[in-house]
Amino acid sequence: MQTNQSPSFGQPARDVLTRRASILFISVALLLAGGCVLKPKGMDAEQDRIDKAESPYQAEYDKRSVPDLPAPATWRDVLRRAFLTNGDLEASYFEWKAAISRIPQVADYPNANLAPSFSYMFNNERMKSWDRTTINVGFDPMENLAFPTKVAKAGQIALEDTRAAGQKFLAAKFELQQKVLTAYLELLLHQYKLQIEEENLGLLKVLSDTAADRLAAAGNQQDLLRAQTQYRLAQNELANMIAEHQSMVAMLNGMLARDAQAPLVLPDTLPAARIVKADDAQLIAMATANNPDLERLAREVEGRKDALELARMGYIPDLNPFAAITGNVSQMIGAMVVVPTTIPEIQGRINEMRSMLKASQAMLRQAKFEKPAAFVAALYVMRNSERQATLLEQTILPSAQQAMNSARDRYSAGQGTFTDVIAAQRTLLDIRSAIAEARVEREKRLAEMEAIAGVDIETLSATAATQPTSRPAAQPVTHEHRQSHMSSNSKGH
Prior knowledge:
- It is built from 12 helices and 6 strands.
- It has a 4-stranded antiparallel β-sheet with strand order 3-4-5-6, covered by helices on one side. A two-stranded antiparallel ribbon has the order 1-2.
- The chain is elongated.
- The N terminus and C terminus are likely disordered.
């Protein structure tokens, strides 16, 4: 009579233990492989950039401590609040942060989930329960285990998309800066023109009273009628400007996340011209060196190069390993090779990625011409505004002031006409407005250049900048600058 004996010792027992250990090792290795990310080079540096930019947005908006604007509010105060409260800028930051979160989604390896299975066999034979049990360990049959290089390349594409999102955030910051500074400067210019119009109204009031006095002394009634008409027209113009000013305040308050009717106190004078510590050649060189849009397009080009390479990897077969054990009866390891046979689909994806790459390269090439051209155009306007402000303020304004004083004195003495006074007055006011417009235009173009170059002018190092090549008329127009320039000229002569 024969009896079935299980191999409990000797070589058969060692074979069983070896097979079981192999199955156990493979199963553990597959389990431990989950959660590994094929992190592309540069991801940590990009994460550091994101973390450094997060400080304004760490707390919920309702819980943030955002100080209100002081009175008066300088351009720095307005810009600081805009950076802290603007929703579009905050949205671009979180788009950047979301982009880096896609890297572990596409670079996770294994990229397929484990799918262990269990089965139990029923029969009438006297077999142990363990020998009737089958355990399979493999990957989800609904998703192939991609070749590692494919996963790594997908992670690199996601990193380039993240870098492009970072440049988009930087571009949004400078676009917001230009938009807010432009609105602030235009509002300040409008307030300055309001002050001029109020002076004009006061002067017309004096002229109207003078004409009335002269009429009482057998003067010309036509002068009185003209003076009263000009005075009423000036009153209407001032009322229109006040309404327009309130509208501009409401729009700027909206940019700063303030109530539209919130009071906004501005300085009484125009801001001092910001000093540029670099010459024109250095400024033009910066136009393409740090431009956020050019950098974003360059990152898109790199990402589409990687996407084209990933599409070509579609010809690489995928390998799905698995392991199974049925008690002491059998132990098995194997792999399923997925051979790519959808050749038209793969080739179509390659052609698509190649076309998208060429489109990105064309956009980058065009932008490399347009961005420097826009920068140079803004630089020309800025320099011309400096020249114009200096000419008007130093040469033309004193002459117009003298002509105005002479015409008013002659009219008060009964030797001049009212028309001469009005003409001289209009000329003087137009010149003062032109000076303010030139100075504000200079600052607006400077903000535009900052947005194009992606660099704050104040961050330029004086030691790194070369000596200015522009003439004195192209330098910032301030009273102190004019005095020092005149002093230096007198010493030189």
